[in-house]
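From the shared-data thread, chain only:
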Amino acid sequence: MNALLICSGGFDSVTLAYRLASENALGGLLSFDYGQRHKKEIDAARLCAERLQVPHLVMDISHIGAQLSGSALTDDIDVPHGHYSEDNMKLTVVPNRNAIMLTIAFGVAASRGFNAVALAVHGGDHFIYPDCRPDFIRLFAEMQQQALDGVANVGLFAPYVNTDKTEIARDAARFKVPVAETWSCYEGGEQHCGRCGTCVERIEAMALAGVDDPTSYQDTEFWQAAVAKVRS
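Structure, as tokens:
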């Protein structure tokens, strides 16, 4: 496999990058500027590409993102705090984001000779994000087979789609991912907030996996109350 990985610069996609690199299957990284407030994640993706010595392509689709209004990631809306299992996390949905990114990625992969597009969606995303669910991944892969029929043979590699983020945390330890160099927080400040959904999920996953988390958080206690709330 020679995969083009959609890499945000977050914990999940960077871990998948290191996993693919360990198998000599990573051909390059593709990141997107869609107008997200946490755009600094792209810098983390760039650093990942440098560390792994693979090409890094950044696509500016902010003009498209500007039309996908109503999300706390792109609009002037407060980023919700808490666990991903809470309904208020739907404010972080950017409609069709993965579908748009994957469509572009498959075109780039076909044009540049990659035989797979890799994506680090996982089971923890299913509740909130419809374009992270197994059915979407399966059907999108089938659709691309038709879209590129006779043009290129590009598969879709999403190894975490049926697992949770705890498995990603285990892989991060297994493949010696420099976790502190990844960026997940939706707030996009100088430091991970420790309170938004992606921060809570990140801390929880590492705790469940028994993996040390070197990330610096503004709030190191909030996640426990957030997790307890959804489990009660």
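The chain has a mean pLDDT of 89.
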